[in-house]
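Worked example (supplementary).
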Amino acid sequence: MKIFTCIKYVPDTSEAEVKLNPEGTAVDSSRFSFDINDADNYAVEESVQIKEKHGGSVTVVSIGPKQSEVMIRMALAKGCDNAIRIEDERIAAYDPIMVARVLAGAIKGQEFDLVLTGCMASDYGNAVTGVALAELLGVPHAAYVKKVEILDGKVKAHRELEGGLMEVVELTLPAVLTIQTGINEPRYAPIRGIREAQKKELKVVNLDDLGIAAGEVDANASHIVLEKLYIPEVESKAEIIEGDPDEKAEKLATILVKGGLV
Amino acid sequence: MGNVLLLAEHRQGELRDITFEMLALAPSIAGALGGEVTALLIGSGVDKMAETIASYGVKVLVVDDPLFADYNSDKYQKVLSALIDDLKPSLVMLGQTAQGVDLAPALAVEKNLPFVADIVGLEVEDGVLKATRQLYSGKVNARIAFKPADTCLVTVREAAFEAPEPAGQGAVEKIESPLKEDLDYRKFVEYIEAEVGDVDITQSEILVGIGRGLKEDKNLPIAEELAQVMKADLCGSRAACDAGWLPPDRQVGTSGKTVKPKLYLCMGISGAFQHVAGIKGAKTIVAINKDPNAPIFAVAHYAIIDDLFKVVPKLTEKLKELKG
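After joint prediction of all chains, the assembly is encoded as:
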């Protein structure tokens, strides 16, 4: 199995207040910690498990800044074999189709059996890149995959539908799978792996190196225009319980008991 | 020109809600573009579903063929691709569902369509289509304009629009399948139903919900002790179940269960729309979260903006006292 696994370096905004830059064109990410996108972390684990079971190699592909190499090295430490980091300011990163074109450019022409991506990135949340990538590579795909079984020349993928229902599909290889969170238990990188990761190949390339014309993946090439970002107002009708933590707890307990809610 | 083509979604013999939600949005767009709405229904033996959609006053185009007895994104893509060439709709609309996500991006690439996924709003401004979508789990909104094109594509977020009441009677037209034979590179195998667990949270009267904010499984007792004193069952967000803190059948949201307790108290849940869609039936919602802008507060009745690790143990203690 020759596997390419695409990962993204994203800010952790789950518990943080998000602010925009003064122009309203980008999120002020200076205050966030960054790490691998959640679903991509599961994709890395799945690719390493497939390699361990069926042999082969895993190449990590990521579009991101120099700082993201910490994340890439971590994937290498977990058992991926080598990596390509693509950095180029000309890419219209807000358009997942343009991102897919860049990833396709990095993979096309090389031999592969599987491409794994996370099913959705936690920052933009499009859930588009992986399936678009499959179409660009001209291979079958399955999205929201929660179980993978490699067969002879084929892959059986369990797709997670609404309400926990699974749709099982069979695809011929090569294929692209977009991996849903919860498919496996992502491992921690072993100490030895972390040492070895430093010696593994991490190629840094730009569009020119990949032979991709900027005019195919930049803002001009994109069919959409990001006009503006804004913070939506949370229209809360909630009664906000004030005080220090103890007072808040006490007030809420009283509301729940007096209101006959518990 | 100006026509909107929406793809009706159905599974295991039933039309899915997103079909009707798109029928809420499509007429205004078609109106602004000077066109009409057509719903495309693909399947096998779907006469009844076609009638149901037609009762919303839109034209229904039906591809009824044994080839479509089971859902297959690639087969659907072939049909949509042929119909886009034939009908030249100004806008094609799919759901941002497990089905749409598996189909729309490939269609966008194949037909080179301007495409915005997971929209929560859509307008026509000076003849230009503009979509609104959410980033960072609903903490930021983006307004995105489509560059001029013969056909644009959107996928519509589930539960973002309220389904209209049936009104009028549209025509049903059957057309021959543009796809003539089965595909060999993707086959439907089977559906597997979700496993049933020890507690059916869809029947719970009181639920305590946990999310990513609980941080690690060693903190689980904080929620368990509260649940015990409240006589509540525990449930969780996708993050909590993925992390293995709770079994999958305790997951609340679009890919888990839809619950309707009389009281839902959640901690460390930011309130991504996938989760919120699963708790709409809760009578009273109490949310505890550090982030004042967490989307969960938009649906909460009582809000505590604070560190759950400081508030929840105290709440448990206080409830014990009050309940004796």
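Two points are worth noting when inspecting this output. The radius of gyration of chain B is 22 Å. Chain B touches chain A through 108 residues (CB under 8 Å).
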